[in-house]
Amino acid sequence: MSPPGLTKGAGVLPGPLNAAVGETVMFSTTLTPPEIPFLTVRWRFGEKVILDYDTTSANIPHPEYEGRITLFISTGSLELRNVTSNDSGQYSVIIVTGAGQVEDGNTELGVHGEDISFVVFYLGGDEDTSVRLSCSSYGSSLSFFWLNGSSQLTAGDRVQLSDGGANVTINVTRYDQGTFRCCVFNLVSEATSDPISLSISFGPENINLTISPSLEHYDEGSEIRLTCSSESRPAAQFMWFLNGTMLTATEPELSLVNFQENQSGNYCCQALNDKTLRSIQSQPAAVSVLSASVTSETNLSIEGNSFKLSCDAGGSMISREWKKDGVKLTPDDHLSLQENNRVLTLNSLSRKDTGVYLCNVTNPVSQEEAEYKMVVYYGPENVQIKGPSDIDLKTTLTLTCSAESVPASYTWMLNSTEIHNSAVYTKDNTEPSDGGNYICEVKNVVTGRTSSALHGLSVTGAPGLSVGAISGIVILCLAASSAGAGGGYYIYKKK
């Protein structure tokens, strides 16, 4: 039915239209441009409204036709572009003119030719597996062939064609990587699909670890770059290991900045392909600092004993030189070198062997030094006590004990009683009881030896003392040591 007040006009569309797939179709009405613009225009495909226009809004195409249709409002004509076989069917239009008259019409569109739908099935995307490509199309008496790049595929050991060439199965290698197209034709038409890229996964394989700069050993503070590469599609992911422990680095390049000795060890990388789920690990590569250390093979350097020092260094092509206190050492009756100068042997230590021993390690590109500070333990020998043998009362006594000993501990005894524990013994305000036999005992806790010396001391009366008279003679003091030394009578004659 027409809206109230409107009358239905005659058909305004021409007879059936035909077009080939991909062409542009113009649905031209028989109307001429009016002086007063049309009020509304509605186009349908079957029962589906594909475009609505009225003077209050812009022409609104159906979402499926966005970009494919254009309305020419002066005549109500419609342009449909890039047609497919799905566009075949009945089209109708209803136009309300500016005068309120309704014009309508309908027509048929037939689309001829092949509308290609291209579908790829992957039965496997890895090297040495099968990939199936399938091409489907609408039409009659169709023939198919496939292009890889610009070359036509033909059946062979790795390529099987089926369903008249519509399907192709390839036992792929990495060299089948590229673009494929399906070509369809019959007696009246032909079409080629859009290209599809075929990606073949393989690897990783042929892993390679390189180090730059490539040296036997490195100085501390060096900058070293380790690079891991492998043949893989897609590109491999990487992991790094030091002495079997996984590091946090995941890039193909591992940078060691300000390289230190504690970073030395065997480095290796592992490549992983997350598509093929295969992995491969490189051979380990040694990266180390040229280092040297000197250690003793015996614990105690005691005079008279033999003693060995070992100079250990990492790497190859190593040469060693020994020095003591800056002077190069050469073998003699007292000293010998073994194992290409790695071991230094002192046949019988003497106290003169105390000093700083230096091992200088070199190779063609670098050098390193290590030192060992040695103290030779000896003694005690030649224990001596220095101090007075006679001393006045109420004065200060100082006795000094010395010995040739490293190390040394001192113990003083007076008349067999321990009185002090250092090399120097001091006593203020001496008394008669301070006289007697003093013994200094020297002990070396390393050598386990002990030695001592004896010193006798007499304490005599001091001048200026006031005494009483007894028959013209005064007996001031009588002192005697238990050992019979240092005592005596002190007699003053009265004037």
TrEMBL record:
Keywords: Disulfide bond, Glycoprotein, Immunoglobulin domain, Membrane, Signal, Transmembrane, Transmembrane helix
Origin superkingdom: Eukaryota
Chain segments annotated as transmembrane: 467-492
CDD domains: Ig
PROSITE patterns: IG_LIKE (PS50835)
Signal peptide start and end residues: none
Entry annotated with the keyword Disulfide bond: yes
Domain Ig-like: 127-199, 204-281, 284-376, 380-460
Protein known as: Ig-like domain-containing protein
